[in-house]
Amino acid sequence: MELLNKEYTLVTLDFETFYGKGYSLSRQDTNTISYVADDRFKVHGVGVKIDDEPVQWFPHSDLDEFRELLDELRTEPTALLCHNTAFDAYILHHHFDWHPDFYLDTMSMSRGMFVGAPANLKALSKRLWPAESKKRKGEELALTQNIYDLPASLEEVLGRYCEQDVTLCYEAFKVMLPYFPDDEVYLIHANIRMFAEPWFDVDTQLIQEEIDEQVATKREKFKASGLPKAVLSSNQQFGIFLETQGFDLPSKENPKGELIPALGQKDWPYLKFIAAHPELKHVWEGRKYAKSAIQESRARWFLAVAERTGGQMPVPLNYYGAHTGRYSGGEKLNLQNLPRLVKGDPYSGRLRRGLCAPSGTQVIVSDLSNIEARVLAYVAGQEYLLEMYREGGDPYLFMASKIYDFDYAETMEIRREPTKERPDVHPNHDPDFRKPQRNVGKVAVLGLGFGMGANKFWVTMNTGPMGMKPIDMSFEQAAVIVDTYRETNYAVVDYWRKCDAMIPDMLQGTEGITFGPLDLIQTNLVMPNGMALQYPNLRMVPDAQGQSFQYSPELKENGELKTRKYLWGGTLTENIVQALARIVITEQMIKIEKYLDETYGLDVARTVHMVHDELIVIGPTRYAQNIYDKMAEIMSTPPEWAPDLPLECEGGFAQNYIK
Q: The pTM is what?
């Protein structure tokens, strides 16, 4: 078949594997990598469909014939199609050393076409063919649970089940492909390739150091809190402790409308309670470490994966992991938000630094500066911000100057670093001058652009914004900062109102409205890449405040929204900005991949990871500077659909991932 102007032999495939008590993908201590690399792993059989030929079933006893088929396919360009291709492709990588030329995945396509809805094959089949009862996923797999060696009769049943899955996958692909933009098809391919063909090596010594530090820090936090771990980790015991100290517990309503204690780490009343009582700082920190050890857990997963893979790190990303199309991290590794190296702290960023390039190559990184803030300024038409970005100004410092009433230009002079073009600097040169105020300006610029109010901003500052330490601030100060931001960024506030006004048009299914780079079609906002921001089942719903706009990908049997998601001008603004920023970087990724392919070949240099604003390539050391320069050129060029969007990037290259 033809994909992106190339001809491929299409191989639709589905592995059926052993699973049972103590060994399955549903366990908290298991991910795809550990499951596939486990000594208990066994292929019960595999179903294969070549192009539109009938499905072939290879039971365990015929796996040698399957290997022969794979060897034949090595001689021709091949595209692999599965439902949850990452799973099957990793089996092919780990146990068969077979890699196709192109990866396709109906699960990923389902996530992109039916955003927020279940993407499993059972749900997808019902969605695509609601009236065709024969096009349904079977339930026979459950019959094989806990059976390591299948009898012939059960093997035959499993074969028919597998053949149905392969057929459904193939048919679903044919239905969805005409509606899927070519760029998105390529992104799915590149995404799965990062996982199924890993290039990163892992510095296990560095990762062990991170584990040791996290364990030691946890002990220190428990000791400083003055409370045993059992009290810190138990909601009931922790609540009793607070009550004995004379506090009224923060509360929230449960689904039945009853007031219950709100002591969860993400409960809004609890966060407000923390912000209001900084005198209990050590108690809050101790409880945080008792309730969650994310960094330690992730570091242990790094080591476990390296042990299973011979020291390599696959990069698992979920395509369309968010409503806006952004990727999310997967496989209990979450490589999307690894802590960065902090200037002056040689012990920070160990998980990033623990990802290394193979010998003779470099990790080449470039990230877009302030991409969401720039996109927001662009769609809202906030001209002073756009001009500041174009001229190399500092929006964070400018916002701080409005908040704290100091001279922005003079402060820029004092902070300015000497350069070849301008070696003369202010006599009191200090790059950290007004850094605390600038940090507040940074949080304001990045946090207040989507309608955040004074209440939430106050809590955010006092509980530690954007990975910073808590910034002590009264509610009155927070309210002034919010007002100052809105007065300064009047066009952004006006854009929220425009988005508010757009929602009723979406509700009515109005079409033909152009909204900046977006087009309204029913309840969807179609984006420049052909994908859409989707708000299915959008409706006006009565609530405690009167009425609100809500939507849900699914409905209950009685027609009510199954999962309520609220929509107003601020959230719609945030959705639009995140979605457009995602398009900017993914279009750049595809251009970089094309350059690497044409210049070096993707077997020599390729994209190995991407974050929301960052692209990571591994390539030969001798070409690293050239590759970085080209990445910087591409990532500084605005997209065709936003020619006036000012872009800037920064980065570099090293033997490990340190940006």
A: 0.93
